[in-house]
Amino acid sequence: MLLIQINSHIKIRSLLRIVLLGKRGAGKSSAGNTLLGKQPFYTAASSQRVTKDWSMSASTVDGHRISVVDTAGWTDLILMNDNTILEIAEWIDQSDPGPHVFLLVIPIGRFIKEETNTVHQILEVFGEEAHKYTMVLFTKGDDLEEMTIEDYLKDTHPDLKKIIEVCGGRYHVFNNRDKENKKQVSDLLEKIKLMAKRNEGRNYTKAMYQKTVDQIEVKWKRERIMNAARAEVEKEINDSAVGSNYETTRSKNTELKPSPDTKGTVSTKE
Ligand SMILES: Nc1nc2c(ncn2[C@@H]2O[C@H](COP(=O)(O)OP(=O)(O)OP(=O)(O)O)[C@@H](O)[C@H]2O)c(=O)[nH]1
Ligand SMILES: [Mg+2]
């Protein structure tokens, strides 16, 4: 046990591997730059996804070697499919042998249902085992103005509170516009190191990811079977509706249109 702790201490001291995740435009690349104290990641105010692929950069911060993987912005349109699964596996590979921490980047502001869906999707993709390696990193801390993050969280959307709870109550806030504020970086590193120590220096692994992918694939398979069954039932209902409409129309036509051999008898009878 002691040996494991010493080893993990050495591991954490040698390189802290960080992966940034979050919705498009959440401030992931900016947060990566703030963390590293340099600008390896391109950032922009855009309604489109700015970062389209992952990239990695490393630096020494407060005497610690850290590597940061910046990832493409999650959008509601990114439906999980085989390509996304492979792309994520690559991000994890980049952080070989696996990240010590996922920073779930969420901008300060109005937290609406759409954000919740994205965050839930991210949490689902990495699976339950990832929760203990995840921390919420709020960006746009300047928007808090006079408020503290604790004040902001007191009145926030219950879904956001739940997300923080899922992440073991871990969160931090960055103002990426304040490049002089080195304390925000040191404080985050301290929180990450504390978390890494609690995890005994272990990191999220590709095997953990594989496990969740297998579960997702089973879920997809089940959904595909259910959808096919549903489509079959709908088709049967439609077919029988068309059939009965046809019958109704046919019988209406039969009532209204006199057959050629009865033609004339209908109107001339009286
Ligand atoms: N005011 C303020 N703006 C910020 C902050 N962090 C990021 N931004 C701005 O938010 C916009 C998006 O930031 P990015 O870092 O490019 O966001 P991203 O999550 O990497 O975006 P994608 O790569 O498209 O997913 C940019 O205009 C940033 O300048 C912050 O702390 N405060
Ligand atoms: Mg980006």
UniProtKB/TrEMBL annotation:
- Check the record and name the Pfam families matching this protein: AIG1 (PF04548)
Name all AIG1-type G domain ranges: 13-213
- Gene3D superfamilies to which the protein is assigned, alphabetical: P-loop containing nucleotide triphosphate hydrolases
Q: Where is this region: Disordered?
A: 232-270
User: Compositional bias of type Basic and acidic residues: which residue ranges?
Assistant: 249-260
Q: Does the keyword Kinase apply?
A: no
Family statement drawn from the similarity comment of this UniProt entry: Belongs to the TRAFAC class TrmE-Era-EngA-EngB-Septin-like GTPase superfamily. AIG1/Toc34/Toc159-like paraseptin GTPase family. IAN subfamily.
Q: What is this protein called?
A: GTPase IMAP family member 4-like
**Record lineage:** Eukaryota, Metazoa, Chordata, Craniata, Vertebrata
